């Protein structure tokens, strides 16, 4: 009669040890999203990458060149570190949002500039008023829009902005990867489709049971695929499959799948 309790105790101890090991391994995961450009790589935290994906997507929605996304991302990195800040600094105490736009300077209401979609669109609206911005340095173009007290600081983020913009506009396939911990909740296809609509309203999406298929090809397909990777942490995305390559949370990078999927396939976590 002693053997059975002992076996159960050993099994229970083994399960606990395995669970503890898995939990410990998750604690050690350093979450980050990386964009590669030639021999250089640049890292953002997952929440920063999700905001970068939104900005790049809106640039495509507006039919702008990748240069516009590079300028916008470099600007947002400098102004807010790509986070939707609800405070300003001494130079602009009423500055808010991704681009630290000031309601007192006519950028919109506080609620509007705190809306990332509004803020990105407003930045691009002002950028498009700058004649020849595509040929300008990032510093010059960004300063013409922002009128910052520290205009030279934008140049510090030019290479980083360009790398993420190139990936997130689809010009650099499989150039953006994310290393993430396990999903913390089940993903919701309707939420993914709605978020995608903010950046890519013209695309056809089919939300299924635990997945979303997006009708996109070529550079647009890669833009959407890498948008999905960049937002995977926020939206509980488990894997992305496109053009014979796949990204998964477990691997963190793009790997050949042997499937030449014509559409972008987004698979969501079914449970934490």
Distance between the termini: 38 Å
By helix and strand content, what is the structural category? Answer: alpha+beta
Number of DSSP helical runs? 10
The mean pLDDT is 90
What are the main properties of this structure?
alpha+beta; 15% strand; Heavy metal transporter
Question: Can you describe this structure in just a few lines?
Answer:
Helix content is 44%, strand content 15%.
Question: What can you tell me about this protein's structure?
Answer:
The chain is an alpha+beta fold. It folds into 2 domains: 34-168; 175-268, no CATH class. The chain is 44% helix and 15% strand. It contains 10 helices and 9 strands. It has helices at residues 3-27, 46-61, 66-80, 110-113, 116-127, 138-146, 158-168, 189-199, 218-230, 232-235; strands at residues 32-37, 40-44, 176-179, 204-207, 211-215, 237-242, 245-248, 254-256, 264-268. It has a 6-stranded antiparallel β-sheet with strand order 4-5-9-6-7-8. The protein has a 3-stranded antiparallel β-sheet with strand order 2-1-3. Strand 7 and strand 8 form a beta hairpin. The chain starts with a helix and ends with a strand.
Question: Which secondary structure elements does this structure contain, and how are they paired or packed?
Answer:
Layout: H1 3-27, E1 32-37, E2 40-44, H2 46-61, H3 66-80, H4 110-113, H5 116-127, H6 138-146, H7 158-168, E3 176-179, H8 189-199, E4 204-207, E5 211-215, H9 218-230, H10 232-235, E6 237-242, E7 245-248, E8 254-256, E9 264-268
Antiparallel strand pairs: 1-2, 1-3, 4-5, 5-9, 6-7, 6-9, 7-8
Helix pairs in contact: 2-3, 2-5, 2-9, 3-6, 3-7
Protein name: Heavy metal transporter
Organism: Arthrobacter hankyongi
């Amino acid at each position: 009669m002693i053997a059975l309790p002992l076996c159960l105790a050993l099994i229970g101890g083994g399960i606990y040890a395995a669970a503890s090991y898995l939990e410990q391994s998750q604690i050690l995961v350093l979450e980050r999203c990386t964009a590669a450009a030639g021999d250089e790589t640049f890292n953002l935290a997952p929440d920063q990458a999700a905001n970068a994906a939104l900005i790049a997507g809106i640039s495509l929605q507006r039919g702008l060149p990748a240069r516009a996304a590079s300028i916008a991302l470099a600007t947002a990195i400098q102004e807010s570190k790509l986070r939707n800040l609800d405070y300003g600094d001494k130079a602009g105490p009423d500055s808010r949002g991704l681009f630290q736009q000031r309601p007192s300077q006519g950028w919109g209401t506080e609620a509007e500039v705190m809306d990332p979609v509004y803020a990105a669109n407003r930045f691009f609206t002002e950028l498009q008023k700058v004649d020849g911005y595509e040929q300008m340095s990032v510093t010059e173009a960004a300063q013409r829009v922002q009128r910052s007290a520290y205009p030279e600081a934008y140049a510090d983020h030019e290479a980083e902005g360009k790398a993420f913009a190139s990936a997130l506009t689809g010009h650099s396939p499989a150039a953006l990867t994310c290393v993430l911990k396990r999903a913390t909740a089940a993903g919701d296809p309707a939420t993914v489709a709605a978020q995608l609509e903010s950046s890519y309203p013209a695309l056809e999406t089919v939300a299924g049971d635990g997945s979303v298929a997006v009708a996109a090809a070529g550079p647009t397909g890669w833009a959407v695929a890498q948008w999905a990777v960049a937002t995977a942490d926020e939206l509980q995305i488990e894997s992305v499959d496109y053009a014979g390559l796949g990204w998964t949370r477990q691997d963190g990078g793009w790997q050949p799948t042997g499937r030449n999927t014509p559409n972008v396939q987004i698979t969501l976590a079914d449970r934490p």
